[in-house]
Amino acid sequence: MIKNYLKITFRNIMRNKLFAAINILGLSVSLACCLLLFLYTSEQLSYDQHHGKRLLRVTSHLTQKSGEAINIGSSSMPIAPVIESEIPEIKNSIRILMPTLFGSKDLISYEDEAFYIDGGMVTEPDFFDVLKYKFVKGSAEQAFPHNNAVVLDKKTAARIFGSQDPMGKTIKLNSLTGAQDYEVTGVIENDGYPTHLKPTYVISRETSIWKPFISQFDASWVGNNLVYTYLELDDRADISAVEEKIHKIFIKNGGAEMKELGFSKEMHLQPIEDVHTSANLEMDSFQGRSLVFIQVLVTIGVLILILACVNYINLATAQAGNRAMEVGVRKVMGVTSKGLIVQFLGESFIIVFISLLFSILFAEMALPFFNYLVDDQIILSSENMWIIGKYLLMFLLITGLLAGLYPAFYLASFKPAQVLKGKNKDKGVAALLRKGLVVFQFVISIALISSIIVISQQVEFIKSKDLGFNKNSKMVIPLSTDEAAASYPVLKQKFVKNASVGKVTGAHSVPGSHILSDILAYKKGQTMDDAVRIIRNPVEYDYFQLFDIQLLAGNYFDGPEKDTLVSKVIINKTAADRFGYTPEGAIGEILYFDFGTMNFQYRVVGVVYDIHQVSLHDEIYPMMFQLSDGNSAQNMVLEINSDDYQQVLSSLGSDWKQLLPDTPFEYFTLEDHLDKQYAADKSTFDLIKYFAVISVIISCLGLYALSMFFAERRFKEIGVRKALGAEVKDILIMVSGDLSKLIILAFVLSIPISIYGMDKWLQTFAYRITPGVGTYLLAGFISIFIGWVTISYQSLRAARTSPVNVLKDE
Question: GO MF terms on file (predicted)?
């Protein structure tokens, strides 16, 4: 029986080569897309599962009295040890401090080599008891035999020591708190499991150089949210109950401080496996993926697969007339409807199985390009063969049923008496379903085309938006060590003498960087209850002139700070508005900030236009630029007046090495730095763009096959019409008219879907375009044009057919 079914299936494939090829090609491409997208999303959703289900991170929710809220992934220093001691359900807790959160780059030195490194962690001695890592050298139990021990990741160890055994060797680490020697006591494999915690090195917070720095924050329960806190709960713990206990302990210990600072704070517990996809939290040093982005990819994959299944259903039901006689004969010979359903479903599964084989080849070919688009690495190998096999089996079952179920029942429903008399007609439910599926295909395709247009307009808007400062020809040199920061004045003198360098200035944070330093300031006559959260960026006096940031009122800084009691500040317009000042009225006013028994005062000397310190996803927030000396700058900014960057870099690097021979020279351009803010948006745009093209191609393949089928079925009618004097244009309109109407209907139905989807995406930007009607009309015209091109060949071929050739056998 199976052998007979296989024979019939392959005979039908050979008899209808074009239709079979269209089905197999469409399904193969769709399945390849789904395989890549599902492998990627399954990897993204599998992060941190190896650490255990009872491990959670403490997040903080801060709310000002004005109602402004901020959600952050970090928490305050003293919380973890207190709640661990008072809540029995907490088995263990660890705190992680990331030097990169402060904008620090760590300098590692060994023998004559030195280089910068990111991603180091300062944490508890029992870090490896709570979080699970694979040790390739040493062990979790002996990770920190003493306070000056360091555990390196495998790649960092190879970079420092090459093929040498790193165990027991001493490196110098110059970090946020200064330089110190550390003994290598372990090497871990970061890539063994997908995890958001990928430390390049791990050291203990008990290290002599770090302990005093960390201890200064041990008294603050509300402010100084500088650490990432992880809790290990016992198996019986109820997360909601533990959250409530944490809140009570926090109110007891931090309630007074919270009232003093003028805002409220709540803490929540986040499962560790959710951290990688929690891209909505601020102050998060971990580069995760937005859950919305992952959901979009899954949706696109499913839609592309559905489009290919629609092609199969359309072509199978359209060819029903050609197979009606076969069905009638087989039923007369005694084959039951159940047997026919099994046969036709079997054909569907065979087509899908053949497509699966091709899809593996297509996926392998597309893999490098796909990895480039998502800026990540997935593989097709024996290492993940189990999950690949699982997806392939799922695709086979779901696609085989989805594509084959309706055609099988439809074909098996033919009545032998009508079929053998030639009275079976392609109408009713089958014809209506086929039209509905064509409309569905083009609704999806047009919606994706609309998405491409809207996203490209938003990308262009981002590129052309006035950010409030001049970003062109700016080079940034990080001053990542104390020695480099202290050398700023001398470096500046050297660099300004370079003919290719214009202005030079220093700043704690450059545009495009999130600023951690914030205060709650209030004006004269108010208290901390009325305070406004304002971001503070210490800059050198000539910062504004280098960036061409325009004054609204007052003056720029006129030189280094002289008044040590009251600090000079320049605020942005948003800050002036928030305090209730006009730009002119703010000049000379004093802003106050209370912290414990201390009172800080800031005199406003100028108000500047708003600048976009961070991406256009975020609203402009109140900013305070505080005048500082160059010695506190973490970044040196140079205005470059030459197109020969290599020559400039060589010259600057030479000057740097003369002064700092043991410190590597690093730089980045401000434009590249700003572009990194939109890397995720670019990935989204590129993926939608390419998969939209694939969906349109798949839809057009089905449309082409249908137009050919319809034209062939109406050849005799066309012959009669032409014999009676019909012109080519009349025949062309007749043949393509029905399908054109379906495309136009799809265009109308796609408009609300496109508007809804794009509005949701655009809402992630604080500054965005407002797509007009023309955007969606353009998408509709593009789709109609593509559809017309697709069906035009068959329509013209039918219209130009000689009536003699068609009617000669009548």
Answer: transmembrane transporter activity
